[in-house]
Each structure stands twice: as C-alpha cells, then as structure tokens.
Amino acid sequence: MKTSQILKERVGGLWEKYVKHEFVKQMKEGTLPQESFRYYLIQDSKYVEVMLRGLMRASSFAPSSQATQILSTILNTRDKGMEVHNYLLDKLGITHEEITNTGYNLANYAYTRHLYYYSTKGWKEFLSAWAPCMWGYYEVGKYVADSPNQLFSKWAEFYASDEYKRRVEAILGALDSYEFSEDLLIPFSASVRFEIMFWEYSLRREETPFYELI
Amino acid sequence: MKTSQILKERVGGLWEKYVKHEFVKQMKEGTLPQESFRYYLIQDSKYVEVMLRGLMRASSFAPSSQATQILSTILNTRDKGMEVHNYLLDKLGITHEEITNTGYNLANYAYTRHLYYYSTKGWKEFLSAWAPCMWGYYEVGKYVADSPNQLFSKWAEFYASDEYKRRVEAILGALDSYEFSEDLLIPFSASVRFEIMFWEYSLRREETPFYELI
C-alpha cells in the first residue's frame, strides 16, 4: 500500500472529522456565518505564507528533481489560486494590512510553528506534515463545491479544480516515493489534528494574540 | 545608482578578470583543451546543485512576491538550460555517477560553502553572493557565443539567450530593491573572487578531494 494511504488509514476517524467538520458542513449548506468565514480567510492567509516559506526551506533538503517538480507545480498553478483568493478578500473587504495586523490564534500559531519545525528537519518529514492540508482541501473542495452560497462555492471551486489536483498528486507522489515509517505518522497525525482545530477555532472566532516579527 | 551597479563598480578590475578570464578567452578562441572543459563541467554541475538548494533555502526568508517570481523564472527556464547541459554531458561522456563520485576542488568547495552560509543568513545577503555567478555568465555567454568550437558556442548560447537574461533581470531587480550597504559588498566581492578561482582551478585541473555526505 502507498505511504500516503497508510498514513491516512492510521489516523482513522480523525480524517473524517477534518474533511467533514461542522465548519465544512456549514459551508456546504450555506449556513456558515459570513463573519466566521472572514475570520477563517484571514487566518488561512497567514498560514499559507508560512507554509510556502516552509516548502522553500524544506525543498533545499529534497532530491533536486522532486523539489523542482513540486515548486514548479505549486508556483505555476498559483495564479488561479491567488485570483480566487483575492476575489474573496475583495468581496469581504479584507486588506493585506488587516492580515498582517491580525495575530494568529493558538491553533494556527501551533500549526505554523510545527510546519516550520519540520521544514528544518528534512524533506520527507515536511511532506508528511504538509500532506494533510493539501490533500484534505481537495476533498473539502469537492464536498463544498455545490454550496448555495456563492462565496463558499467560489472558494471550493479552486480546491476542487484539476489544477489543484495536480498539486496534490505531485505532493503525494513525492511522499509515496518514501517507505512508510512510524516516524512519518507523527507529523502527519499532528497536522490532521491541527486542521480540525483550525476549523474549530474559526467557528468560535477565537482570540488571535500571537504575532511574528516582520 | 542601482545597488547592483555600485557592487560591480566597487569590485573594480576583479570583474573583468572574472568575465574575461584566460579560461573564457580560450573558449572564445576555441583553444581550450577539451579535458579542461570536461573538468569544468563536472565541477559546475556540482556547483549548480548546491546553488539551487541555497536559492530554495534563502527564498524562505524573502518577501513572498520576490521569492515566487525568482523561483518561477529560474524553474520555468530550467528546461532549456538542462537541455544544453545534458547535450554537453552526453557529448563528453559524463554520467550522473561520475559527477556524484567526483569531489569538489578547493575553490568550488569554498564557493559552495560560502553560498550555503549566506543562504542561512538572509535573502539580500544571498542575492548579493549569488549575483556574480548569474550576471557574469550572461556577459561570458555573449563573449564566447561566436567560438569556432561547437561545444563552447553551444555552451555559451544558453547563457547569452533571452531566457537566461530574464533570470539575470529577475535577480538584479530583487537585489536593486535593497539599498546598497557595505555589508552587501562582502558576499559579492568574495563570490567574484571565487568565480576567478573557479576558472583558474579548471584550467589547471586541480585535485578534487572534497566530498559531501549524500
């Protein structure tokens, strides 16, 4: 069995708790309060920035062909993602300044420091920590795509797209080039837990007291 | 005056010693012994690998728009470079194994460790350490392009190309977004010296006793 498949199986029911979280269900049904979505988008923007830096750092440990392929795939499909992202920010009146001036909530701060940590440990460890985010959002995108709420369906459309799927395939392909080991389960399962907490904290619009140096 | 221009002026005559080195002149005239070129290509292949890893590592410290732009430009123009590179390796019977099994000479080892060091220090410091290589090779390419030796002209053709020029412009554009400071001159001038030594060591086919962990 593929490494990615083993990892997913080993986290058991946590995976469904992540991809079918109450936050996700409310997006699909169109009942999610817009304020929660707005809160989520700001936290997510902060997360993506750290994730990209982590990818770059971790790539420096990777076999060059894998690093090149993944970075190309991510960067070449970035325009579409940014287009949707900027459309949503615009619709909700979120500026770059607001994102910078808002702190991280505890779940997001823990999650991004966890990604940073694994980006300094090694490539396959980073892939394993990163996979739940990329992989899970593809499933979430497919699930939410038919939302009656135009903002949520627009958001989901990108994650359900073929372009996004290519990213996921590139990442899982790289991860699957390594044999499964219990070591890989540690970052993977922590990231699944962080994803669940990420929805949770967004539903509750938790306080955001954690900042980075700029 | 632009930061890159100040840096070039401040290294004075060293720049010409680099881009019009005896090794370069012999390529242009077609008199360079093929064995020296072969030796050079192996050392250069090892260098490029470390340089790319350094770029990825340093990018994690960069403003995301700059990191994205430079990585995209480098990766999207990489096919052409690899095409020429692989053509030359093939012509000279150089395998991937030979590159891996050959050590670094002292100049190359010092140069690549220097790049590693700056890739951990910060983005503008790395740009300054990296610029002499990218910028100088464009000038070298233009100079060597009319060589009567088909291997050397093929080699030069890529560095003299518009695709390669776009890389140089992206890098210098990023470097020029920072004000000149004496601190930036330190990595820049060391790299110019290493480039000169790189040609020197290749002409003399110096011993290659330095290895990395794989």
Please write out the topology.
Two copies of one chain form a homodimer.
Chain A (H helix, E strand, L loop, with lengths): L2 H8 L3 H6 L2 H8 L4 H26 L4 H13 L1 H14 L4 H6 L4 H16 L1 H22 L5 H10 L2 H15 L5 H22 L11
Explain what you see:
- 2 copies of one chain form a homodimer.
- Chain A has 214 residues and is mainly α.
- Chain A has one domain: Heme oxygenase-like (Heme Oxygenase, Chain A, Up-down Bundle), CATH 1.20.910.
- Helix content of chain A is 78%, strand content 0%.
- Chain A contains 12 helices and no strands.
- Chain A has helices spanning 3-10, 14-19, 22-29, 34-59, 64-76, 78-91, 96-101, 106-121, 123-144, 150-159, 162-176, 182-203.
- In chain A, helix 8 packs across helix 9 (123-144).
- Chain A is globular, with a radius of gyration of 16 Å.
- The model of chain A has no long low-confidence stretch (mean pLDDT 95).
- Chain A binds chain B through residues 49, 52-54, 56-57, 59-61, 64, 67-68, 71-72, 75-76, 78, 119, and chain B through 49, 52-54, 56-57, 59-61, 64, 67-68, 71-72, 75-76, 78, 119.
Q: What is the quaternary state of this protein?
A: homodimer
The radius of gyration over CA of chain A amounts to 16 Å
Report the span from N to C terminus of chain A: 43 Å
Largest interface: A-B, 18 and 18 residues
Approximately how much beta-strand content do the residues of chain A carry? under 5%
| CATH domain topology of chain A | Heme Oxygenase, Chain A
Share of helical residues of chain A: over 70%
By CATH, the superfamily of chain A comes out as Heme oxygenase-like
Tell me the domain tally of chain A: 1
Residue ranges of chain A: pLDDT <50 for 5 or more in a row?
Answer: none
The helix-strand sequence of chain A is HHHHHHHHHHHH
Mean pLDDT of chain A: 95
